[in-house]
Amino acid sequence: MMDDRVELGVELLRRVEAERITLAEAVDRIETITTDPHLTRDILDRAAMAGLVDRDEGIVRPERGAFVRFESEVVTKEGEFTCRRCGTGISTGHFIRLDAGEIGPFGSSCIRVVTGRGSD
Questions:
Q1: Which residues of the chain form beta strands (DSSP E)?
Q2: Does 26 lie in the same domain as 76?
């Protein structure tokens, strides 16, 4: 049975809305789910073996057209949260709803970075 974090990581990588990201940027996204280096490698390997991403010399190219739809797959919740990516305290959390589960919360700028719609 595959670890839920691996499923989430594979789906997140597949859904990045960018033509290409660096391996470091891919790991940055994966670290919103796990910081375990073994799981990180497993996520990258499984995504590549399934043909969901192409890895070549430090570049990751996600499958095209499978991006996160903000209108239906990103939900916001009000409360006291800590951004999973940067650690900042936030009052509006953005959560990504994927088939494998929910990832978040993220702040308004980090949600764009995680989905591939923005950069640092």
A1: 21-22, 53-56, 59-62, 74-82, 89-98, 101-106
A2: no
Which DSSP state fits 68?
A: -
Strand, coil or helix: what is 65? coil
State the pTM of this model. 0.83
Question: Domain residues for 49?
Answer: 4-62
In this structure, what token pair is assigned to residue 9?
């990581």
Q: How many domains does the chain have?
A: 2
The neighbour count for residue 46, using CB atoms within 10 Å, is 17
Phi then psi for residue 117, to 5 deg, are -100, 0
Task: For residues 113 and 99, give the distance between their C-alpha atoms in angstroms, rounded to a whole number.
Answer: 20
* 120: in domain: no
**Residue-by-residue pLDDT tens, the chain, 120 positions:** 457 899 999 999 988 888 889 999 999 999 999 999 999 999 999 999 999 899 888 999 987 767 788 878 899 999 999 999 999 999 999 999 998 899 999 999 999 999 887 665
